[in-house]
Structure formats: C-alpha cells, structure tokens
Design a protein that fits this description.
3 copies of one chain form a homotrimer.
Chain A (H helix, E strand, L loop, with lengths): L19 E6 L5 H6 L3 E6 L10 E10 L10 H4 L8 E4 L5 H4 L2 E3 L5 E9 L4 E5 L6 E4 L2 E3 L12 E3 L3 E7 L5 E7 L10 E6 L7
Parallel strand pairs in A: 3-6, 5-13
Antiparallel strand pairs in A: 1-2, 3-4, 6-11, 7-10, 7-12, 8-9, 8-11, 12-13
C-alpha cells in the first residue's frame, strides 16, 4: 500500500480467495479520519459455486458521522474520542434516507442483504422489525435455513469491519423498519424502512 | 402495529415459526423511551421437538436504567446520549437484586439459562464466575455439548436485542457470581449470585 | 476463592475440562480496579488430541489502561465510568509496542494466534491488515479451514472475557498491521505490526 496525490490513480489487482462481505478503506494517515470521511466501501465475494438465487438483494453499509465545521470534513477530534459519540449513524451514507424513500421488496419473496459495519468505532446490532432472519452468515459462520430446531435470528452483532449475509421473507404487505438495535442511535439516523408490496397490511 | 391509549388492550396472535430467545417491546414513539422505561419482555420459543430436559431453568433479561427525576420516568435525554452511559445495568429489572437473594441451584445438576439483552443501547458479555458454559445457542448458532475438541465458552456477547440459551453445571457447593463482564457495569448493578447447594464449599 | 496479603501465595489446582482461550483474574474487591491494574492472564487449553501443528504461534491480550496520577495505580474512578473511555488500549500490556518491535513471521507459513480481550470494559474487533483469517475458533464456535463456500473472516469480535484462536498466512513479505478495528482506539495504542520475511514487498 502507498499514498497517492489527488488526481492520481492506483490499481490494485488481487485474487479473491475467500468468500465474505468485506470492508476496504483508505490506509493513508490518519486512517481514522479517512474512514470517518467516507473513504470506505464493500466488496462482496460469493462462494465459487455462487450463492443460491434469491428474489432480491440489497447492500447496506452502516457508518458513523462525526460532524466537523459546516462545509468542512468530519471532525478528527470527535472521531478520536475514547468513548465514541457519533453525531449520526447511517445506512449507505445518509441518515434516515430510507424513511423518506422506503426500500421496495415484495411480500413472500426471499430477500438477501449484504450488511457491513464500517464503523469506524461503534458496533452494530442489525435488526428488522416484524420479521426474523432464517439465514445468517456472519464472518463465515452460518445459521442455515432449515437448521435442526429451526432456530432463527433477530439481530446480527457486527463490530467495526465485520460483515454478514442475512436472508428473510415478509409474511404480509407493510412497512418494516430496519435499525441497529443499539437504540440510542435510531434517533441519530440509524433507521430505514422496507416497503413490502404496497406497504399497507390492511388491503 | 398501532398505538393504544392507557387502559386499552390489543391482542396479537402469531405463529411462532422460529426457535429463539426473543425480545418484544413497545413500538410507540419514542420507542427508545418506552424500552428505557421497561416496556419489554422475553419470549422463549423452543424447537418443535422441545429442548432436552434439564434439572433447572431460569430466565435473565439484562437492561439499562437512565435515571430521571425522582418519581419520574427514565430520562429520555440520558438514553439518547450518543455514548450511552446508563446509571444502572440490571438483571430482571432491579440492580444487584440477586446479591441479596441468590438464585438457588444444586451442585452437579444441569442448569439452563435463557439470557436476553434488551439494552436499549449497551452490549452484554454474560459470564458466570467459577464455571464454564458447555452449551451455548446464540441467535441460533450452537456450541454443542460434546463438540469435537470439547470446547467450552466463558462469556456470551449479546448486542441489544440478542438472546441466547446457555447451559452449565457447578462442581461443588458455593456462591457463583454472574455478571456482564463489561466490568464497569458490575458496580452499577450488573451482578448476581447463584447459590449452589448450601453455598459453602468447605462442607 | 479468597484474598491473600502481599507476599503470601495461594495455589489453585484444577482440571481443565474444556478447551478454550481463557481469562483468569484476581477477584479481590474491587475486582474492576485489580483487572484495570493488570491483574489478569490468559490460559490456553487445547483439545485433548491437541491442535494441528502450525509454523508459529503467538498470544495477544487486549486490555485498557485508565491512567491514574503519575506513579500511582490505574484510576478506579475512570475505570468506573459508565461510558468507558480508556486512555490506552494495548496488546500485551504496552501501547504500540509492536510498532517499534514488529512481530516476526515468515511468508507462506501458517500462523496461529491466541487472542483474548480482558477489557475490563471495551469490546475488541481484532483484525490484521492485508490478510484474512481462514480459521477462527471464537468461544468454541469454529470457522473451519476449507469450509463449504470457503468463507473467511476479516475481524473477530470479542467482548470482555472472550477469547479466540485465529489462523492466517501472508502471501508476500511485508509489514502487516494488527489492530482492534474499533478505530478510535488505534491511535491510543491498539496497533502493532507483523513483519513477514524481511518486511519488504518489493524484493
């Protein structure tokens, strides 16, 4: 790895040896400041034979925002706090964006999410209100569909730089909030909605 | 889901499709305030064929308390802090209650606990001093009794809204503290005692 | 358990019934203060038949330091904070020590780490920059080498008092940082380096 100047480009070529939901990020000093300013992304590597087809897939990246001065980058000072206190916790870079624009799914279809917590510093407890994950692959460890006992999962704990695949179905039309269930962050942007069908359970 | 006025009732009927140790809670706005005031509970759903019989079972719900004014509800302002700082962390709603009234178990018997972290915002690291879990089912993923290698578990990490089944035995009479091993909270109520047999290892 | 005076000794004899990466610590009151002052250690118990031979093994204990007055023990007051804010987060007791003295490994050899988070209060997200864990045994639950799908792991979440075995290989000579990916702590000592081969990828 090496740093490059603005306007330069650097091409990485690599062989993806392991399946997973991976975080990549800038490593230029101070890395914390770069991550806190959004210099990160998700790489999805499927198993060689691929994951089973599903009806719909989405990707969600949970991140924190430590507000700097208006018009300025994120505050490195705030991000360095030993007890992290982000101003916002977000999915895909904008707080609460999926409240105004719910994410469409259809009732009864199998939905797969790729979920990554890029932090930089706070854990996630990813949860969807109103349904249960029947499949979770967290950092390679799987709760499989049709497992003995038919156990399900209500929340997936992801520390910074952990990723997971989760799958679920909705039983009826409606609006299904998704959050990190670290509930102090829900009012700070860490909430969105899935709209299943027409979003109205009374039809 | 819909809100109801004090004194009204609302009956939910649902089919429990997945085994687990589930959290339920009020979804009325602001949900954080309701959870922080104790509007939550645990639902245990066993596999269809049931869990294996054990000698004794208990249920523990870990929660936080953000003290409001004397005689008033929990403080929403405190609960909303981005760096959560609960005044108390408790098992089953009262800080340190099982120090004064230890939870009885018998030496050599198999004990099963259903453990749920309702938060609202802080992780748990559930641990019993003096013994080891030989079975853990966390959000459906199992460390089985008699697993290859005979691995055991000393602590179960539960983010808010995660639950687990844990099993253990005690080898001799005595007092066995249980805590969240996030040790800053132990002095804030997150500790109790199991009394195995007569509680005296010298007999 | 009982307390002893300085200079006294107390011998524990016990049978190690379960494999794991275990934390032991002083239980004298206030336990939090004792842990925060370094009164802890790691016990590695291998399965009866042993773990498979590897080329190299290291042990890392992540801990927090709450600075007291100069020349005095760690600050109990700071350690008791409900929102834990350690001054330092360290591997093996000294912040950033493996930046100055990288940990030697060889390119292409299988390396096994025993990783324990002793806290007392903060979670770890153990990660190595530039490689992927192909084996993780966290609190007994295993992501096995050659698992179906060939899933790997980028970070291991360890709450206080949790331990794990992780294995990896490096593909080329170089310096590979290891951190807790709770990145606010990286600038507070929670970083070290592996030097693979001569540490220079351009040779």
């Amino acid at each position: 790895m090496r740093s490059i100047a603005p306007g330069e480009e650097l091409i990485y070529e690599f062989r993806a040896n392991f399946a997973g939901v991976w975080m990549y990020h800038c490593g230029t000093n101070p890395t914390l400041h770069h991550i806190a300013n959004g210099m990160y992304g998700m790489i999805i590597v499927e198993p060689t034979e691929g994951l089973e087809p599903v009806d719909r897939e989405y990707a969600f990246v949970q991140s924190e925002w430590y507000l700097g001065e208006q018009g300025q980058p994120a505050s490195l000072t705030k991000a360095q706090a030993s007890a992290p206190a982000p101003d916002l916790v977000m999915f895909n870079g904008v707080g609460s964006q999926y409240l105004d624009n719910p994410v469409p799914i259809d009732t009864g279809e199998r939905v797969r999410l790729y979920v990554l917590n890029v932090g930089p510093s706070v854990d996630s407890s990813f949860h969807i209100v109103g349904t249960i994950f029947d499949r979770v692959i967290k950092e390679g460890v799987e709760l499989a569909i049709g497992n003995p006992g038919n156990w399900g999962s209500q929340a997936v704990d992801l520390s910074p730089a952990q990723g997971a695949v989760v799958e679920f179905l909705t039983a009826e039309d409606g609006l299904y909030p998704f959050v990190t269930h670290a509930f102090n962050f829900v009012g700070r942007g860490a909430i969105g909605l899935f709209q299943s069908g027409d979003g109205d359970p009374t039809n």
